[in-house]
């Protein structure tokens, strides 16, 4: 991914601290404390650094497949004196074995629709999350049925256009992938989550109707196999 695109994505959240506060509200209904946090798809670390400011005692990990983004994250965090975030270049479909049931919270901010294999990634999130942990998944709030988006100028003028040049190519960056992009829609995302072992406990817009957040916990199914 070109450095110019990384810079644009880094600035996509106008007030990351405010967005994080909104995102945390439903999480704290299920968790009294967050000692270990994973920011999956951290990019250059904007959300990870906000997490560090909000939870200075937590151990935070920011991971991304993009080496340039992780290098930027490490450099910026060093400049800002942030010490409780560790940035790593990793493939989200094969996280470290030793991370099984490691995290109290996994955040995926504007990531799910970009993934070539979201189902495999969500299985890994399930594995590395503690049984009483929370997954917070923020993604564009577009409808899966494109007719339901008619009249929403933000979708046509911004959402679909951005998806064509960034999101869709990312989601097609591996062989035999569905190529979701923003057009995947939140109804289809929720169907994936509920069919793969998750219970959506809260669903709300964060900042705008274009940003929909799913707060999820593990559905304790006896027959669910990762």
From TrEMBL:
<dbReference type="InterPro" id="IPR025714">
    <property type="entry name" value="Methyltranfer_dom"/>
</dbReference>
<protein>
    <submittedName>
        <fullName>3-demethylubiquinone-9 3-methyltransferase</fullName>
    </submittedName>
</protein>
<dbReference type="GO" id="GO:0032259">
    <property type="term" value="P:methylation"/>
</dbReference>
<dbReference type="InterPro" id="IPR029063">
    <property type="entry name" value="SAM-dependent_MTases_sf"/>
</dbReference>
<feature type="domain" description="Methyltransferase">
    <location>
        <begin position="33"/>
        <end position="155"/>
    </location>
</feature>
<dbReference type="GO" id="GO:0008168">
    <property type="term" value="F:methyltransferase activity"/>
</dbReference>
<dbReference type="InterPro" id="IPR053173">
    <property type="entry name" value="SAM-binding_MTase"/>
</dbReference>
<keyword id="KW-0808">Transferase</keyword>
<keyword id="KW-0830">Ubiquinone</keyword>
<keyword id="KW-0489">Methyltransferase</keyword>
<dbReference type="Pfam" id="PF13847">
    <property type="entry name" value="Methyltransf_31"/>
</dbReference>
